[in-house]
Structures are given as structure tokens and as C-alpha cells.
Amino acid sequence: MFKTVLFPIDQSREAREAADVVVNVVKTYGSRLVVLSVLEEPTSDTPSPDPMISPELVAKLLAEAEALFSQQGIKAELLERQGKPAFTICDVADEIGAELIIMGCRGLGLTDEGATDSVTTRVINLSPCPVLIVP
Length: 135
Description:
Elements: E1 4-8, H1 13-29, E2 32-39, H2 55-71, E3 76-82, H3 85-96, E4 100-104, E5 110-111, E6 114-118, H4 119-126, E7 131-134
Parallel strand pairs: 1-2, 1-4, 2-3, 4-7
Antiparallel strand pairs: 5-6
Helix pairs in contact: 3-4
């Protein structure tokens, strides 16, 4: 049913908690798992992105995710992209043919408009496939 699952991650507690659901879904359906971390590029609107999120930190986050899933017997494909998180998540989902996106209900990123227009909300509205939000 879900041949390819996309799991966008950040350093949030919600992303870590969603990993348990990812393990369950991937094992149940024998899915291919793609783990994505998006590094937001600075723009003229946001000249300095969060200094806590560096390319080194993203690499470490992906390595930790790979180890976590490996312990569960799951081979995860790792992707690191740059761009606006919600749009990048949806573009990658389309690119890899994802049949499900699993993500935490709140990540680290709020859009400029605030909580009512969070990355999660944008992904729900733009996604080319179903989105499972883990509270």
C-alpha cells in the first residue's frame, strides 16, 4: 500500500516521536524509507537562517536517523536538500514517488506568517500524496 515513505526530520521532539510511527508503517508495509532533512537557504527576506541549523548539524541528524532505523532492521535512504522546507518536502515527495509522508505535528520551523501557516500545514496543503501527522 505504501511502497515509498518520506520522513522529513529536524531536531524537534515531535520528529523524534514520529520515528516510532515510521518504523511501524515501514515494517508493516515493507516500504522503502527516505529520510529528508532540509537546510533552509538564506534569502533577502530571511538574511540569516537559524544558526543552530548548519550543514554539519544536518549531517549528524541524518546519521543518527540512519542508525536508529538500522537498529530496527530498516535501511533508510538519506537526502539532504536546501530550500524552503514545505516546498522542498513536497518536491522530494513528488520526485521519489512517495505514497506517504510521515511527520511530526510541529517542527522547528514556523513560516513568517506564524503558527497558523506552519511547515506542517503547508505540506498538508501542497503534498502530492497523503500526509500522516504524528501528534
